[in-house]
Amino acid sequence: MEIAYPLNMGTARVTVQHQVEYAVGLDWLHKAYLSVLDGRKDSASQIEQIGFFEHKPVYTLGARANRTNLIRPENELAAPLVQTSRGGDITFHGPGQIVCYPVFDLNSRKLKIGEYIRALESVIIASLRTTGLDPKRIANLPGVWIGENKIAALGVRLRNGISQHGFAINVSTDLSWYESIIPCGIENYGVTSVEKLGLKIEFDELIECLATKLCSYFDIHCYSPLETVPYS
User: Fold this and answer.
1) Which of 7, 97, 151, 177 could disulfide-pair with 173, CB 3.0 to 4.6 Å?
2) Strand stretches in 56-194, DSSP E
């Protein structure tokens, strides 16, 4: 599904796809990057992109990931292991998890990558607070946390000043998938999900909240509310 929003700089396009292979997300990400890059020819009509994906099970490695953070050998993993160009270490994507790929022109906003990561964390924290949770940052550990358990992981890349990859939030994820890895290469900390914390929320309602807060935080004006529908 795609929703196009008019905004003061052009159009923001939101894409939502459920239960798709990781390669589908990477293909979308590449095309979205090219679209935003091409839009620099006429900044007044530049289209930025936000993709929300729910992937089929996959483990992904960041560009500088340490393979010692694999607890099980690769040939014993119950899901594929994919090398990516994002920052961060090893993580898991799968059903019940929202993966968001904001593809924004950070050059036009004069944002550095560290500032961008803090902005994404702020969006996640604000969105999760609407569910009744009390998320937080932990100094020197990227991501968003509930106590000492990570509920949202971040891994981004800048290419020609355009953001790629993004963040993942565990909504109703089967956390046993994480038993095969040291998530994000961070020892002595755990992972959690909205469901594990005893809350039930509609998956697409949280996507709607995230999209709205992303648009607000990055000054993308939405003239109509986001409408999402479940995919079969």
Assistant:
1) 97
2) 58-61, 81-83, 90-93, 97-103, 136-138, 141-146, 149-159, 162-170, 190-191
Q: Which of 30, 40, 50, 25 is nearest to 220 (CA)?
A: 50
Task: Give me the domains of the chain, ranges plus CATH numbers.
Answer: 2-217 (3.30.930.10)
Which of 100, 184, 209, 215 is labelled catalytic? 184
Whether pTM exceeds 0.70: yes
Query: Are the CB atoms for 128 and 169 separated by under 8 Å?
Result: yes
Q: What is the mean pLDDT of each run of 10 residues along the chain (232 residues)?
A: 43 88 97 93 82 97 96 97 97 98 93 95 97 96 97 97 98 98 96 97 94 88 41 29
Q: What is the DSSP letter of 198?
A: T
Query: SS3 breakdown of the chain: % helix, strand, coil, rounded to 5?
Result: 30, 35, 35
